[in-house]
């Protein structure tokens, strides 16, 4: 996977070294020698990752990172701080500034490339979600961006650790911000992670007779835990394990002995990122629902009908089962709008949809076809469709439609046209056309009636 990476360092030799390493892996590399130039590039250029030095003239890396993360336009770009500072307090400060990772000079080549690839994959996933979510209403996106922090709510963490003593230390470190469920049995932990809602899994690689990477792999392969962040605690110098873990999809690692402040900062970073992506996925789901749902009535819309009817028709044909379509039109609906206004017309349409839902089965597909026309698709139904239509026709005729704004109620009727796949329809379009012809006949014969298959 290729990506565009910005290297920010005021020492040319450091820039050239990182640039050469990244170019060898076929990454596209841009460079900047101070924080202001870096911010300008980030503002105007699409980037997938930033390698950011801390000690620079003008503004240091901490401030650059804080500005990037405070700007919605650049907040999603992963930032890896690369510096000669090696104090735990510096790592914690960098993570609190919003950095996604922290590497100490001299940078280990294998860890550098593994970190870069891991974060680039994560960025690609977030970008895809963001692109889809952009089709949602702007208020939805604003709500998402407001909720990216995730630091106010108590995090739910699953700790998988083979030793009681280290469990106690980790629980104590995370107690201010997280509820921690600690387990020493990796196989039981897999079921726990799948059955309950967690924001993060911490896997401590201190088992005597179990490979912790197998647990990480299983968590990534299960549908319910595929997007659950994993933080690996590994022994200092266990580079091969760390690299393999990142390639398996582990999100982050921390080396033992564990610094409590760094553990806290990395935990909060992973929880923040998970909640951000969860909200994006929810926005995508809502956007899809909006695309196939009629906003006024809550029924599926014609776009959904056009696609799903093909599936239902093909399934009925493959199983040699009947499929019926009922096309419904509210009689003289224009007079409602003309007499009481379009708000009253909307009230009627919503109530009409409610009555349809109360009549049809859960397996039936009810849609607003357009204007005052509705469609009900009934799988595994032939002649019984007439009885369903007659029942709905009677409900509409007998019960007046309340108009709250007008302070009155009006009587309405509807006409119904039915067709069934047991006839001569070879395609879903023909079946729908036959229902339309039956509806036309119902209208021509005086309305407020059900006509079956006038083809």
How much is the radius of gyration in Å? 30 Å
What ranges have pLDDT less than 50 throughout 5 or more consecutive residues?
135-151
How large is the count of helical segments? 16
Order of strands in the sheet with most strands: 2-1-3-4-5
Helix share of residues? Answer: 40-55%
Describe the global form: elongated
What oligomeric state is this? single chain
Kindly, what is the distance between the CA atoms of the first and last residues, rounded to a whole number of angstroms?
57 Å
The helix-and-strand class reads alpha/beta
Secondary structure: number of strands:
17
Averaged pLDDT, please?
88
Strand content: 15-25%
Task: Outline the structure in words.
- The chain has 455 residues and is of the alpha/beta class.
- The chain contains 16 helices and 17 strands.
- The protein has helices at 12-24, 35-44, 61-70, 88-96, 109-133, 138-146, 164-174, 186-195, 212-221, 239-248, 260-292, 302-319, 333-340, 342-359, 384-398, 428-444, and strands at residues 4-8, 28-32, 49-52, 79-83, 101-104, 155-160, 178-183, 200-204, 230-235, 252-256, 323-330, 365-370, 373-379, 401-403, 408-410, 414-420, 450-452.
- The strands form four sheets. A five-stranded parallel sheet has the order 2-1-3-4-5, sandwiched between helices. A five-stranded parallel sheet has the order 7-6-8-9-10, sandwiched between helices.
- β8, α9 and β9 form a beta-alpha-beta unit.
- α8 (186-195) packs parallel to α9 and α14 packs across α15.
- The longest helix is centred in the middle third of the chain and has 33 residues, at 260-292.
- It is elongated, with a radius of gyration of 30 Å.
- Mean pLDDT is 88; it is low at 135-151.
